[in-house]
Amino acid sequence: MILILGGTGEARELAARVPAVSSLAGRVSTPALPVGEVRIGGFGGVDGLAQWLRDNGITAVVDATHPFARQITANAFEACARVGVPFLVLRRPGFDPQPGWLWVDDVAGAARAIPGSRVFLTTGRQDLAEFAGCPQWFLARMVEPPEPPMPQRIEVLLSRGPFTVDGELALMREHRIDVLVTKDSGGRMTSAKLEAARRLGIPVVIVRRPPLPPAETVADVDAAVRWLGTAGA
Ligand code: NAP
């Protein structure tokens, strides 16, 4: 049996093409579910995951988690090496970089480098605490309601997308946004805000992806399906 570590559109696409069990972290109360078997919740670190791979007769693991889900990818790399199960990372490419973007290494760096006062923030609920001490006003878009700490001056917009350039233009104009702070998540579904920012001449602060473990990596679902064929999973 193949294990797909999920939480992304690519993971759902892959689950629709190969028989597999998909795993979700359980962060979202009403997740978009992949077809096929699904398990939800953490494994209990590297030890728990290694045990789970053995107990469930897993023959290959595809990590199709979000590019910023660093911990689960590191854990899966180590657990697969320990148990001797083939491991592949499926990561969509990052956004096409535009001149003038301000690149930072992490979310804390973004919080220190905001060149504006009315911020459109799309780094996600889990990173909101990093902006708690910021004096700016924030329009923060996320899927689930956040918990404190968070910035004092904030409007939370609960939305899962997909988003259009026209919609993002209207949103940024309506809220008189003067800077966009986001992550290099990649993908068409979330790139509309970047195009809208470009058209409005709004500066963009963008967080670099965390490094990947030295695992075999592919950029699209077709390549992951081919790899599963050759991995004999
Ligand atoms: P993370 O920091 O890498 O992982 C933290 C812990 O959550 C892991 O150690 C693991 O717990 C558990 N976990 C994460 N992904 C899991 C999965 N697919 N199945 C089972 N357990 C999982 O992850 P995160 O950034 O919190 O992201 C959680 C999930 O949300 C991921 O599946 C990711 O694809 C999705 N997501 C993340 C972002 C983002 O910006 N980070 C955005 C969109 C979607 P144990 O150690 O107990 O196994």
Descriptive report:
The protein has 233 residues and is an alpha/beta fold. It folds into two domains: 2-92 and 210-231, NAD(P)-binding Rossmann-like Domain (Rossmann fold); 101-207, Rossmann fold, CATH 3.40.50. 29% of the residues lie in helices and 22% in strands. It has helices at residues 9-15, 45-55, 70-83, 107-112, 165-174, 192-200, 221-231, and strands at residues 2-5, 20-24, 37-40, 60-63, 87-90, 102-104, 118-121, 137-142, 154-158, 179-183, 204-207, 216-218. The chain has a six-stranded parallel β-sheet with strand order 3-2-1-4-5-12, sandwiched between helices. A six-stranded parallel β-sheet has the order 6-11-10-7-8-9. β1, α1 and β2 (20-24) form a beta-alpha-beta unit. α1 (9-15) crosses α7, α2 (45-55) packs across α3 (70-83) and α5 (165-174) packs across α6 (192-200). The radius of gyration is 19 Å and the shape is elongated. NADP nicotinamide-adenine-dinucleotide phosphate (NAP) binds next to β2, α2 and α3.
